[in-house]
Amino acid sequence: MTLNQLTETQAGVIKQINDESLAIQLLAMGFILGEEIKVERIAPLGDPILITSGTNYISIRKSDAQQIEIKL
Amino acid sequence: MSSAAKNIVLIGNPNTGKSTLFNALTGLNQKIGNFPGVTVDKKTGSYTFKNNKVSVVDLPGTYSLNPNSEDERVAKKYLESTTKNDLIVVVADATNLKRNLLLFTQIIDKGKQVILALNMMDLLEKNRQEIDLNKLSKLLNCPIIPINARIEKGVDELKYAIHSFKPKEHSFIDKKYSANVVDETMLRFNKINQIVNECTTKNGENKSYLLTKKIDNIITHKVYGYLTFFALLFFIFQAIFSWASYPMDLIDSGFIFLCDYVNHLLPEGMLNDLIVNGILAGLGGIVIFVPQIAILFAFITILEDTGYMARVSFLMDRILRQFGLNGKSVIPLLSSTACAIPAIMGARTIANYKERLITIMVAPLISCSARIPVYTILIALVVSEDEAYGIFNLQGLLVMGLYLLGFATALLSAWVMKLIIKSKEKSTFTLEMPIYRAPRWKNVGFEIISKVKIFLFDAGKVIIAISIILWVLSSYGPGNSFQEIELKYSVADLNDVSNVEAQSMMAAEKLEASYAGIIGKTIEPAIKPLGFDWKIGISLVTSFAAREVFVGTMATLYSVGDEDNTKSIREKMMAATNRETGEKLYTKATTFSLLLFYVFAMQCMATLAIVYRETNSIKWPIIQVIYMGALAYFSSLLVYTIFS
């Protein structure tokens, strides 16, 4: 399952990030493999989305969210 | 301790208060330059502590040493170029220790000498969390100074720690794992996790974080979110156009006074004319926009500082992406309504090259404040002040229409460029949503000062150069045509013609005979289909210095003695007739055509200079002149043909 399939306020655990440069970027922004990730809000037009992990709080596009594999 | 000067380098994640600390350390002893070869601002400054001068470099915010944008590449490159004489101060957010320590450990493993400055200690307390600083310092093998940069708490302690710093050998992880960046980062995080868990205790919920999410329920709401945004926009526009008018009037009269003073001080002649009509007039044309730029940047800094801008970008990303732009294009596009120059500089935050380029290319289509005087005088020619359409003032509606036209055309052009410009680079919108905080007023002040400085000096240089060239073009003519005119009028003077009138008539005739006049007449055949005559041709040429020069040129052309008397300029323009047909020149067709020309044409040398600097290529400013010129020409042609 990938992150873009979650609905608002749904959470999961980051299993793997398929795109390497995205993985490096997200890790540096505090989105660490094995930790909880949650979709806080989906933008009014369906994209991008706001996600959190711990106190890290960022916005990413759905196409990037599709690269993030999660476990519920 | 040696008395040699020390160099310190500030580095840290974005939104950690790094700039605030930089301001607290250096005060007003700072300047902004450029990192070599790139257009990222390099902030340097200095302070003196115990008779030692310490120089400080503030690097752009970066999450790690694995760069993702121009800013991050610059930070990494600069850090790697530091020597053992440089001391690195890593600024970290104490409330988000884990993530902030990643960069710290990467720097340690580069073999750099490091002090860790833990900022936002006040928030940590508020959120009822504690960090055992002694233990953390021991585990990280590095001096740690707790600070609260906002109220300058801990800054002296930091200066002392820098002063008494003793170099040491240290490393965080083993180098042999660093083949794969993801694995290496995970290795670092595992170790950081252990250390952070050992040193921190949580006694309650993170209140500021929870509050932020509550505010976001409104700010990013599908109805209230956009409502808030448009209400704010409305307020900012009101402020830019109404508040700024008072200081602008002051500056205007100040320059008139100054011109007058210099005019009387210096003996009459070429030098006097150059200084008053060339340099001072050009200078006045720039300085007059400082209030609007200052107000605009005050708002933009406040919106960025509080964390609101990130949310607007979030709301707008989906819409702007359609047009080849990015959520982050919102700020440059809005700034363009004041002036395209700071707007184009503001596009630096867009990581994707294509999106940044498109933002730069279309920003000048959005009506800037220099167009306002032109719109005002032209609209008054076709619509009288008290004409209204229901409750709406017709003049106001027209101005709004011109703004909307500019904005819509910018989006449309962006869309076309998106189809033309090829790029393999991936477009992303990975943006941190900082927690909401009150603006740091000192930062707002610093930001205004630095942006105004860039505007005055970078744009100012070009505008003054162009003003001087234009002055030469309009003050000299070929052969002895000027002397003949002067001779003619000295005879006329004897014939008891009122002196003022004779002088202004002479000025008009001189302008006609000047190189600028010759250029105007040369291009007349090309602009005739748009309904323009050679006089408008001259003002199109002079408008290259800055669009508002149109008004001054009109004043000279129609020999209005007092440049600031727009009413009399208007009257003269209304009375102007076509040389050949003898009919009124400024008909609805000609005026609308001219208005459209000013909406679209790239008549701003300073903007072109900035575009050249930001894109590092002469290609893009040239394309900009051509495409905007073509837009202007053909839309004017269309409108003139329809209305006449």
List the helices and strands and how they pair.
The complex is a heterodimer of chains A (72) and B (644).
Chain A: E1 11-17, H1 20-28, E2 36-42, E3 49-53, E4 56-60, H2 62-65, E5 68-71
Antiparallel strand pairs in A: 1-2, 1-5, 2-3, 3-4
Chain B: E1 6-12, H1 18-26, E2 30-34, E3 41-49, E4 52-58, H2 70-81, E5 86-93, H3 97-109, E6 113-119, H4 121-126, E7 129-131, H5 133-140, E8 144-146, H6 155-163, H7 181-199, E9 200-202, H8 207-219, H9 224-243, H10 245-265, H11 270-287, H12 290-306, H13 308-321, H14 330-335, H15 340-346, H16 353-362, H17 371-382, E10 388-389, E11 392-393, H18 394-420, E12 431-432, H19 441-475, H20 481-494, H21 499-513, H22 515-527, H23 534-542, H24 549-557, H25 566-575, H26 588-600, H27 605-615, H28 619-643
Parallel strand pairs in B: 1-4, 1-5, 5-6, 6-8
Antiparallel strand pairs in B: 2-3, 3-4, 7-9, 10-11
Helix pairs in contact in B: 3-7, 5-7, 9-12, 10-11, 11-19, 12-19, 15-27, 16-18, 17-25, 17-26, 18-26, 19-27, 20-21, 22-23, 23-24, 26-28, 27-28
State the main characteristics:
heterodimer; A: 72 residues; SH3 type barrels; 5-stranded antiparallel β-sheet; B: alpha/beta; 3 domains; 7-stranded mixed β-sheet; two-stranded antiparallel ribbon; 28 helices
Cα Rg of chain B: 29 Å
CATH topology (level 3) name of the largest domain in chain B:
Rossmann fold
- CATH fold group of chain A: SH3 type barrels
Q: Provide the number of structural domains of chain A.
A: 1
The N- and C-terminal alpha carbons of chain B lie at a distance of: 83 Å
Describe this structure in words.
- The complex is a heterodimer of chains A (72) and B (644).
- Chain A is an alpha+beta fold and 72 residues long.
- Chain A has a single domain (3-71), classed as SH3 type barrels (Roll).
- Helices cover 18% and strands 39% of the residues of chain A.
- Chain A contains 2 helices and 5 strands.
- The termini of chain A are close together.
- The mean pLDDT of chain A is 93.
- Chain B is an alpha/beta fold and 644 residues long.
- Chain B has 3 domains: 6-204, 3-Layer(aba) Sandwich (Rossmann fold), CATH 3.40.50.300; 224-420; 459-643, no CATH class.
- Chain B has helices spanning 18-26, 70-81, 97-109, 121-126, 133-140, 155-163, 181-199, 207-219, 224-243, 245-265, 270-287, 290-306, 308-321, 330-335, 340-346, 353-362, 371-382, 394-420, 441-475, 481-494, 499-513, 515-527, 534-542, 549-557, 566-575, 588-600, 605-615, 619-643, and strands at 6-12, 30-34, 41-49, 52-58, 86-93, 113-119, 129-131, 144-146, 200-202, 388-389, 392-393, 431-432.
- In chain B, the strands form 3 sheets. A 7-stranded mixed β-sheet of chain B has the order 2-3-4-1-5-6-8, with helices on both faces. A two-stranded antiparallel ribbon of chain B has the order 7-9. Chain B has a two-stranded antiparallel ribbon with strand order 10-11.
- Chain B is elongated, with a radius of gyration of 29 Å.
- Chain B starts with 5 loop residues before the first strand and ends with a helix.
- The mean pLDDT of chain B is 84.
- At the A-B interface, helix 1 and strand 4 of A face helix 3, helix 7, helix 8, helix 13 and strand 12 of B.
- Strand 4 (56-60) of chain A pairs antiparallel with strand 12 of chain B.
